[in-house]
Amino acid sequence: MENGDAVNYIRASIRPAAMRRICRQAAQTLAARRHTWILTGLGFVSLLWFLVRVVPKPSRAAYPCQRAAFPIASGFVLWVLGLAGSFIVFRRAGRRLRQARYTSAVVSLGGATLVLVGSVMLSPTPAAPFESRPCNGQG
C-alpha cells in the first residue's frame, strides 16, 4: 500500500464528526502557539523600544508611548527571568541528584517546578477586550 493509499484509508475510517473535533483541537493548539509567539515578540519589541528611547534621555520615560510600553516590557523581562531561573535550578537539582544529595535535589526540584509553573501560568496571554465606560457620568 502506498503512502497516499494509507492516508485515504485512515481518512475513510474516521467518522466526519471525529475528524472535525480533531481538526478543531489542532486549530486551537496552533492558535494558542501563534498567540504565544506574537505576544513574546511584542514583549521583546516593547523592551527594545523602551531601552532605545529612554536610556539616552531618561525624561522620555514620562511620554505616553513609553508609559504604555513599560508594563509590557517589564512583564516580558519577569517572564524571561522566571524561565531562566527555573532552568538553572533544574540543572542544579540534576547535579545534586547525581551527587546523591537527595534532600537538596528534591528541594531544588520543588522550587524549580514552582518557578516554572508560575512563569508558564503568568506567560503572555491575550488581554481582555477593552470596555469603554462613561467617565463621571459623561459619555
Would you mind describing this structure in some detail?
With 139 residues, this protein is mainly α. The chain has one domain (13-121). It is built from 4 helices and no strands. α2 packs across α3 (64-98) and α3 runs antiparallel to α4 (102-121). The longest helix has 39 residues, at 16-54. The radius of gyration is 24 Å and the shape is flat. The termini are far apart. Residues 126-130 have low confidence and may be disordered.
- Elements, N to C (H/E): HHHH
Low-confidence parts, pLDDT < 50 over ≥5 residues? 126-130
Mean pLDDT: 75
Helical/strand content category: mainly alpha
Give the proportion of residues in helices: over 70%
Overall geometric form: flat
Rounded radius of gyration (Å): 24 Å
Q: What about the largest sheet?
A: none
**β-strand number:** 0
Brief summary of the model shown:
The chain has 139 residues and is an all-alpha fold.
Any chance you could write out the topology, listing elements then pairs?
Layout: H1 3-13, H2 16-54, H3 64-98, H4 102-121
Helix pairs in contact: 2-3, 3-4
